[in-house]
Design a protein that fits this description.
The chain is an alpha/beta fold. Helices cover 20% and strands 26% of the residues. It folds into two domains: 54 residues, Signal recognition particle alu RNA binding heterodimer, srp9/1; 66 residues, 2,3-Dihydroxybiphenyl 1,2-Dioxygenase, domain 1 (Roll), CATH 3.10.180.10. It has two helices and seven strands, in the order βαβββαβββ. A four-stranded mixed β-sheet has the order 4-7-6-5, with no helix packed on it. It has a three-stranded mixed β-sheet with strand order 1-3-2, covered by helices on one side.
Length: 123
């Protein structure tokens, strides 16, 4: 059996707000609370469990996505001028994308300072 990442705990100041923000990026629902967590199922193998019991230290979470998912994400980002996103660390939150490895990529900053990276080709 290959190793599969099943879930990650994402620290948040407000787990409901953080889960809703992330779920909104992907166009998926927030699941019913499970213990202290507000879970968001990313796919059949991975759930992000948002948790407000600890201090929210900014982290980086990267996701390989297909072109359709990337296009839908960019459409959602374009509708909300309050969301900070950009091409990457060197470019800042310039509301652009990068073309690393021949694909497309974008970084999105969430309300807790986390950086979500979405890319279509592994660089």
């Amino acid at each position: 059996m290959p190793v599969v990442l099943n879930h990650m705990i994402v620290p948040a100041a407000d787990k409901g707000v953080a889960a809703a923000f992330f779920a909104g990026l992907l166009g998926v629902p927030v699941s019913a609370e499970a213990g202290p967590f507000a879970p968001v199922r990313v796919n059949d193998e991975l759930t992000l469990d948002f948790d407000e019991r600890r201090r929210a230290e900014p982290g980086h979470y990267a996701f390989l996505v297909d072109d359709g998912t990337f296009d839908a994400l960019m459409e959602r980002l374009g509708r909300d001028p309050a969301i900070e996103y950009g091409a990457g660390p060197e470019e800042g939150w310039n509301r652009g994308i990068n073309r690393l490895g021949g694909g497309r990529g974008v970084y999105v900053r969430d309300p807790n300072g986390h950086s979500y990276e979405f890319f279509t080709v592994v660089p």
